[in-house]
Amino acid sequence: MKTPILETERLLLRPLSPADAPAVFACAGDERVTRYMSYKRHETTADTLEWLQSLDNDSGTSYDFGFIEKASGELIGVGGLYWEAEKQQWRLGYYLRHDRWHRGFATEAALKIVQFAKETLHETRIGSCHAVENPRSGQVIRNCGLVFTGYGTYEKLDGSERFRCKEYLWTKTGEELTHHKGTQVLHTDRLVLRRFCETDAADIFAWAANPAVTRYVSYQTHRSIADSEKILQFWLDGYKREDNYNWAITFDGKKVVGQISVTEHDGVWDAGMGWQIDKPYWNRGYMTEAARAVFEYLFCEVCFHRIYSGHDTRNPASGKVMQKLGMAPEGIARQHYYKPGFGTGDAQKYGILKEDWLDNRR
After folding, report:
1. What is the chain's alpha carbon radius of gyration, rounded to the nearest angstrom?
2. Per residue in 130-184, pLDDT tens?
3. Are residues 317 and 213 in the same domain?
């Protein structure tokens, strides 16, 4: 279909034409505007005119809009959708005249373009990116509902410069944002994290029967091996689902000294974590080491967007692990925990985004 005319509260978005060359050059000829764009700055209006004449508004593979400010009648920006065949998705792009920055025009125009892609083109995937050094553009992209998926790179079309970028994606169902792979074996310098197996009951009982270990976990201290066998069977049954994440913490793949697991998740967005380790291994960095491996797997392989956890405020040692992982405090939930025989406890909440995790490990 042809590039249509779209309207927002303050803007008209219409097809570009060669007559727009002087107004577009006011943007495309400004180094402040083009600094992080894929094409180099236009030297003259002739460069801009040549680009405008190359546009094909009937191709169906790109939709280029001029942003017309209603109040002044001036063209103040350009943006649109561009088909990426290799990814089978549309890419959102935009730029704005410098004197109209920081006034919400970019978000207003981009939101309308994304709405056009969803409702008129019935598209299911929209991507975009911005240079790491240009974080304000990321806020516009997030305002349009796109989600950070990772880091990448892009070049100026003439190959003169390469930028590290943050990549974003919107999908209609959200399902493509995560890739569930289940509990896979993970290795660290000192540990092997694996699935629980049928012979692990005795090892579980060794720490689950210790009140010091179970004081702040959800289950009661195990009184017999039968209690450990029961919870082990529950964990084994969980492995039938590919979205189940529950690791036995071992040193050599054999004796189990603790557990780390995703205690809850919504399937596509965030995951709640919990962990425990036998008392002889406290304060030796093992829990942090195990959690780092699991976080890396959940963020970079499964592609969860956010991981959260919490601890009883009377158990600050668990909070130290969360802090070492780069998790940020997110407030206190009063009387969040209840355990028969121990009463209620306040929960200090922590969370970390995939974006923060990748930034912290650089």
Report:
1. 26
2. 999 999 999 999 999 999 988 999 999 888 899 999 999 998 876 667 788 999 9
3. yes
Cα–Cα distance, 349 to 38 (Å, whole number): 41
Of 137, 185, 193, 167, nearest to 354 by C-alpha is: 167
C-alpha torsion 140→26→18→114, nearest 10: 0
Residue 1 domain-assigned (yes or no)? no
CB neighbours of residue 25 within 10 Å: 20
Tell me the pTM: 0.75
Identify whether the C-beta of residue 304 lies closer than 8 Å to the C-beta of residue 265: yes
Residue 322 banded pLDDT, cuts 50, 70, 90:
very high
> Which residue, chain included where needed, has tokens 């940020």?
328
Domain boundary among 177, 211, 243: 177
Mean pLDDT over 101-107 rounds to 96
**Residue that is last in its domain, among 155, 177, 199:** 177
Taking residues 106-115, what's their average pLDDT? Answer: 97
The verdict on 118 and 138 lying in the same domain is yes
Going by DSSP bridges, is the β-strand pair 306-312/270-277 parallel, antiparallel, or unpaired?
A: parallel
The domain total for the chain is 2
Looking at the structure, tell me whether residues 201 and 165 fall in a common domain.
no
Closest CA to 90 of 108, 110, 70: 110
Ordered strands of the 192-194 beta sheet: 186-187, 192-194, 246-250, 256-265, 270-277, 306-312, 343-353, 328-339
Same domain (yes/no): 113, 135: yes
Within-domain flag for 41: yes
Q: Do 38 and 98 reside in the same domain of the chain?
A: yes
Nearest to 306 by CA among 324, 331, 328: 328
Q: Name the residue range of residue 144's domain.
A: 6-177
